[in-house]
Amino acid sequence: MSSGSVRLKKAGVYSAALLASTMLSGVAYAQAQSSQNTALEAVVVTAQKRSENLQDVPVSIQALGGEKLDQLQISAFADYVQYLPSVSFTSSGPGFGQVYMRGVASGGDGNHSGSLPSVGVYLDEQPVTTIQGALDIHVYDVARVEALAGPQGTLYGASSQAGTLRIITNKPSTAGFAAGVDVELNKVAHGDSGHALEGFVNMPLSDKVAVRLVGWDVRDGGYIDNVAGTRTYTRGDSNPTNDFTINNKARVRDDYNSVYTQGGRAALRVELDDNWVITPQVMGQVQKSNGSFSYDPKVGDLKVKRFYPESAKDKWYQAAMTIEGQVANLDVTYAGSYLKRKTDTNSDYTDYSFFYDQVGYGFYWTDNAGNLVNPSQFIQGQDDYKKESHEIRIASPQDKKLRFVVGGFYQKQTHDIFQNYRIADIGSSISVPGYTGTIWLTKQQRIDRDKAAFGQAEYDITDKLMLTAGIRFFEAHNTLVGFYGYGKGYGSTGERACFKAAVVPGSPCTNLDKGVKESGNVPKVTLTYKLDSDKLIYATYSKGFRPGGINRRSTLPPYQADFLKNYEAGWKTTWLNNSFRWNGAVFMQDWNNFQFSILGANGLTEIKNANQAKIKGIESDVTWVPVQGLTINAAAAYTDAKLTANYCGFTDTAGNPVTSCPSPQAPDGTSLPVTPKLKANLTARYDFSWGEWDNYVQGSMVAQSATWTDLRLADRAALGKQKGWETVDLSGGMEKDGLTIGFYVKNVFDKRASLDRTAQCAISVCGAQSYIVPNQPRTMGIKLGKAF
Q1: Residue 392: in which H helix or E strand, if any?
Q2: Which whole-number Å values give the CA distances from 569 to 424, 528, 579, 588, in the listed order?
Q3: Mean pLDDT taken over the chain
């Protein structure tokens, strides 16, 4: 298929054609074929806290198994998300991706004092969701990735309001020794080269104990160029000697957004007896990225002009333990973890200096002698996360007519925030006390606490009809304390607003100390009907929630919890002697009082509740083996997400959204941002033998329709609409006696997709200087591997 063969300008027509072809025409054609040796392998998932065949679970799930992940050349978060049609995301670089599902997206900016995510991310049994983005876990020696669409609050809690992503690693096995090593070399078009070295070993230490060790060292080549440029600040008077010009000669580099990722995992399996197993695991990763992952279209394709150092170091580790056993005939599971994550960032902030300070106010900063200084700003940031979680649950035998899972959950997330906004040469009278050269400081501690009790039961009304009912009772507590703002020498916020001595170490004093508590419950009810042993249909009502919290700007009221009601009907079907699988769901969701983040005055994030939205859609996936060796996968989602009340941009004194206003910022009927109306993918793979070698060739296409990056009409006009796009990947390889040789070409036609559009401050001020976050240009690679 050529790169120009797919055009997504008419999303409705295209989506109808695609969904019809993948779900209906495919069935009709497949039924006319004979099938021999074409049976599909069973896919086992643990979405409902127990191992089950995917086709028996009345939940909309997409699962990418370990073999499929390898076939699609998936190694990072951005790689697997594109093959999950119900999932969309924005990103400012590795480790800072915001995940959304089924259109539940208002365009939040991922700020450290923003809303909790609406999609929960799990590593095995433990949550690893953090405020500023999902962990960018390197995908190697992974059993599968599961995407559970729709509210999963009953079993997964607060940050699974719209869905859940789960990364399931391969566990130690006492069955025997196994090991593997993989080496990859690649080259990015318009950019640099990269490499990957990965390996694992599974070693039984006895018939009851086994260890699994995994490691990786990866370099991703850069493709964004920082080109030479200048920027002149003018005071606004007639004296040109007051102008100040900066240049970036010291920062000019080609391909300056390279990424280095190193990490490893160690897991132990200890079988205490026939009933009890303990699995402790430690996993850690260090990811160092340079430069910017966005470009300025005014400067050129994949080019930008930045004046100060830009980098990020994302270092994290997680210690986890799972204990599984039996008491009488009940299965008992404990899952606990401790996650520590630290990110150090350096950011150019000259756009803010130029458009907000200079253009908006026409002044310069001065030193202690009153002389004008370079007004350019840059940011030094450090975010420290500590997250502990504990869950214990009890499950009854699965061969009974009535089955249940009940449990308790506790989680505490601590986030130490340090954001140092620097104008290096300003005087001490202007600087924040204790931080010479700092014009603005954020030094705060945020704590999110969550505890819950949950239960879910299944009852077989007849041999074909099953009722599932569940509920989660929760309590949430969010606090934010510390300092934000200027020193005494400038501004009404900051030190002048302090009301007590420093609570957070390193802060000059305290001008913010607030908290909010909430409690409630989220239910789920599902009816499942088995048409026969290979086909089922289901109908679900479920509810998801996301706790409220404290605004970083202390004069604003807290933002309230928002809730998502989901009405869904789905099907899981297998046809033609298990050679054709067709699953799907249609849904309607009401998103009430939803949290909406914007960049307000001084570039501070403000979260306000923003009325209601309705989301309707259909999602489906097909797997078909028409003849031996040929496998075809297709998946698509059509999502229509719109406001059902005006967004006026302000709330009443209690924090409730106001809907009646003469000029709403987004009127009733405005489409929600981020999520495309259509997202689809298609993969065809052919496996065949040639001599003593097992060989394959594969082609994949991913496509989506146009999107907006903001809800507000004025901001949309400034940033523009992101066009629809499509990319094609090709790969091939051969295997013999554990030796594999493979090649791939990602983004064959070097299509430039816009994944996000950003500005450094409010669009009304900085919108004249916006940036595009692109997908990775065409990348060619070769891989060698050996299994032992």
Answers
A1: strand 378-395
A2: 59, 10, 24, 9
A3: 89
Give residue for tokens 């699609």: 72
Which single residue is written with the structure tokens 């993989």?
Answer: 182
- Report how far residue 750's alpha carbon sits from residue 506's, in angstroms, rounded to the nearest whole number: 48
C-alpha span between 98 and 101 (Å, rounded): 10
Cα 252 from Cα 734, distance rounded (Å):
42
CA distance 329 to 325: 10
Residue 617 has pLDDT above 80, yes or no: yes
Distances (CA, A) of 740 to 23, 200, 566, 696, 732: 34, 16, 45, 11, 11
H/E element, 471: strand 465-485
Q: With contact defined as beta carbons under 8 Å apart, do 316 and 280 qualify? A: no
Q: Are 524 and 542 in contact (CB under 8 A)?
A: yes
Can you give the three-state secondary structure of 416-456, one letter per residue?
EEEEEEECCCCCCCCCECCECCEEEEEEEEEEEEEEEEEEE
pTM of the model: 0.90
**Greatest CA separation for the chain:** 88
| SS3 label, residue 13 | helix
The percent of residues in the chain predicted with pLDDT above 70, rounded, is 92
Dump pLDDT digits (tens) for 370-385: 888 889 999 999 999 9
Dihedral angle over CA of 701, 703, 709, 714, nearest 10? 150
Cβ pair 559, 608 in contact under 8 A: yes
Give mean pLDDT, residues 491-520.
93
Residues 6+ apart with CB under 8 A from 515: 477, 478, 479, 480, 550
Q: Which residues pair with 264 in a beta bridge?
A: 215, 284
**Distances from the Cα of 653 to the Cαs of 446, 467, 608, in angstroms?**
23, 44, 12
pLDDT (tens digit, 9 = 90+) per residue, 270-291? 999 989 999 999 999 999 999 9
Nearest to 459 by CA among 401, 542, 375: 401
- Residues β-bridged to residue 554: none
pLDDT tens, position by position, 477-497: 999 999 999 998 887 889 999
- Look up residue 99 and give its two tokens: 């995940």
Query: Containing H/E element for 19?
Result: helix 11-20
Residue 668: CB atoms within 10 A of its CB come to 14
Cα separation, 575 vs 582, in Å, equals 8
Amino acid making up residue 90: T
Q: Locate tokens 């523009």: which residue?
A: 720
CB 408 within 8 A of CB 391: yes
- H helices of 21-152, in order, are 26-31, 66-71, 77-81
